[in-house]
Design goal:
Number of helices: 21
CATH class of the largest domain: Alpha Beta
Largest sheet: 8 strands, mixed
CATH topology of the largest domain: Rossmann fold
Structural class: alpha/beta
Shape: globular
CATH architecture of the largest domain: 3-Layer(aba) Sandwich
Number of strands: 25
CATH superfamily of the largest domain: ANL, N-terminal domain
Radius of gyration: 25 Å
Helix content: 25-40%
Strand order of the largest sheet: 2-1-11-10-12-13-14-15
Distance between the termini: 62 Å
């Protein structure tokens, strides 16, 4: 049985650094190319930053904020904080100054590590309201001469290197209690102030250990991956950071989400951890490109997709292809699939994980049919997060797989998913009432998700209890499945289903404007802006047909009667999305109340 070499992630990292030494630990983009940093180099920075934090009086149990996008310094900061027994309080890189203030204030953080100038300025803007916050460190090299209590990362390392009680660092690591808190992750919640999820060292190590044991044959020294999901999110923290540390994989940091595919082509990763958004965008981009291709290329693609469809059973069940079909697959692999995999930076990929939100069956099957094993999983911040995942040897698209070992899942009488396992959180910080509400009397965590479990133990998430639409006729409808189906359209970028306390369902739709513009040009539809497009009768007719095509398998009460095309993409900055890209339904209902009411005229409502 595979065992982790340590009972906390700081201890695991130290043991891996001793073992792997000068091998590449991480890579980052410098002067246009990826540059490696060794385990020894990372460990030297971890020690120096840890010494610095101790020199300014950071004690065991103190909270330290970490406000930055993904970069190697995030790892250094986290390891330095947790190694000395302090508690890492991550803040999403996209959070506003007020959101950062709430988290730093509620957690009573004594210091904050900032990524770039913008993060530093946001904290300085609200620092007067943060009496506990004494010191800031900014990762970028900036001019901070007139900034009180601010050091650059380089300066902090230099000061740390002069600390006289250096042996205290190892003493603190050895004395870490794995049942104590390692982090407070503030949920990005769709309503009200976020809750601080308390996760222990034991929570993290347990989840990493269980995943490693279940999939150990797919991991190992020398493997590589690309990191692009926010490290502030527990999915990336556990699966894209702690797991690679535990297995000795090299992690390259993507420049940003928009450059992920380009970076994947440079790195050629063995695996990636992503949310459905990446798979949706890649699939839609491919389909849009094919639609604009020559008739011969479209025919070749369609034949290849028919082969991919028949290939699903062999990939999903990890079994050999019959000789005749193998020849057919090899032909289309040479002509189509291998070219796609190379173009997407997936030619070496053993598997790709999808989590954080439902992945449509169509998106999953598109990749799986080409030989890329997309493994959908499930978890929440409160479960560190992974509780379920499809194994590479038996994939069921449309499910999130069976529960991990040592994890118990069951369905309550009202359909709610309940979970118990070593990865389940300690509770909500300073919020006993909320903690008590989410645990059953026998210790199961109430997820708020509605789920079903099949005869093989594979689970499917069918919706969120709080998102359920109750129509005026009393019908309960989960919008998530409908939205996931609609998002498989190459012309739909984002969608929100409306209908609570209404007589019928409607939809707010953000078109995939790249694909839509190409379609308009092919059909000689004049336009000078996206506004022209969404008001064009032929475009509206296109979306009407797209929606009808995707509604064929839904009951009459689930049909979308009306829709409204919108021209502005929903983002966290404009308020409609959480940092983990979930739709804030209340905000959308408020912001687009006029457009919604237009779809429910008095004579029909």
């Amino acid at each position: 049985m595979v065992k982790l070499n340590g009972k906390t992630m700081p201890e695991v990292f130290q043991n891996q650094a001793k073992k792997l030494g000068d091998k590449a630990c991480v890579a980052y983009k410098k002067d246009g190319k990826y540059t490696d940093i060794s385990w020894n180099e990372m460990n030297a920075m971890v020690h120096k930053l840890g010494w610095y934090l101790m020199s300014i009086g950071v004690k065991k149990g103190d909270r330290v904020g970490l406000f930055s996008s993904n970069r190697y310094e995030w790892w250094v900061g986290d390891l330095a904080i947790t190694s000395i027994g302090a508690i890492n309080v991550p803040i999403y890189a996209t959070n506003s100054a007020e959101e950062a203030r709430y988290i730093l204030d509620h957690s009573e953080s004594v210091a904050c590590l900032c990524g770039e100038k913008g993060h530093m300025e946001k904290v300085l803007e609200v620092k007067k309201k943060l009496p506990k916050l004494k010191s800031l460190v900014v990762f970028d090299e900036l001019d901070i001469k007139n900034k009180k209590d601010v050091l650059t990362f380089k300066q902090a390392l230099e000061k740390g290197d002069k600390y006289t009680k250096k042996g205290e660092f190892e003493k603190r690591i050895k004395s870490l209690d794995d049942k104590k808190m390692a982090t407070i992750i503030y949920t990005s919640g769709t309503t009200g102030n976020p809750k601080g999820v308390m996760l222990s060292h034991y929570n993290f190590v347990s989840d990493v250990r269980i995943i490693y044991q279940k999939f150990y044959e797919y991991f190992g020294d020398g493997k590589s991956m690309v990191s692009f999901l926010p490290l502030s999110h527990s999915l990336e923290r556990t699966s894209g950071y702690y797991l690679p540390v535990a297995v000795g994989a090299r992690v390259a940091f993507a420049e940003d989400f928009g450059k992920v595919v380009d970076n994947m082509k440079e790195i050629q990763p063995d695996f990636i951890i992503s949310v459905p958004r990446l798979y949706e965008k890649i699939h839609a981009t491919v389909l849009a490109g094919v639609a604009a291709a020559s008739p011969v290329k479209r025919l070749l693609f369609n034949l290849a997709m028919k082969t991919a469809k028949k290939n699903l059973v062999y990939v999903c069940q990890d079994k050999p292809k019959p000789a005749l079909f193998q020849k057919r697959y090899d032909l289309f692999n040479k002509l189509v699939f291998s070219k796609f995999r190379t173009a997407l930076g997936m030619s070496k990929m053993d598997f790709a994980v999808s989590g954080g939100a439902p992945l449509s069956i169509a998106d999953a099957e598109f990749f799986i049919g080409m030989g890329i094993k997309v493994l959908e999983g499930f978890g929440l911040t409160e479960t560190t997060p992974v509780t379920n995942v499809n194994p590479p040897w038996f994939i069921k698209p449309g499910t999130v797989g069976p529960a991990l070992p040592e994890t118990t899942i069951k369905i309550a009488d009202d359909g709610e998913l309940l979970i118990k396992g070593p990865q389940v959180m300690m509770g909500y910080y300073k919020n006993k009432k909320a903690t008590d509400e989410v645990f059953t009397k026998d210790g199961f965590f109430r997820t708020g998700d509605i789920a079903v479990i099949d005869s093989d133990g594979y689970m499917s998430i069918t919706g969120r209890i709080k998102d359920i639409i109750v129509t005026a006729g009393g019908k309960n409808i989960s919008p998530q499945n409908i939205e996931s189906d609609l998002l498989t359209s190459m012309y739909i970028e984002q969608v929100a289903i409306i209908g609570d306390k209404r007589k019928y369902l409607t939809a707010l739709v953000i078109p995939a404007f790249g694909a839509l513009q190409a379609w308009a040009k092919r059909n000689n539809i004049p336009f000078t802006s996206n506004t022209d497009l969404i008001n064009n009768e032929q475009v509206i007719a296109l979306f009407d047909q797209e929606i009808k095509n995707h509604m064929k398998n839904y009951a009459r009460v689930e049909q979308i009667r009306k829709f409204k095309l919108l021209e502005a993409e929903w983002t966290q900055q404009t308020g409609e999305l959480t940092p983990s890209l979930k739709v804030k339904r209340r905000i959308i209902n408020e912001k687009y109340s006029k457009e919604i009411e237009e779809m429910y005229p008095p004579d029909l409502n």
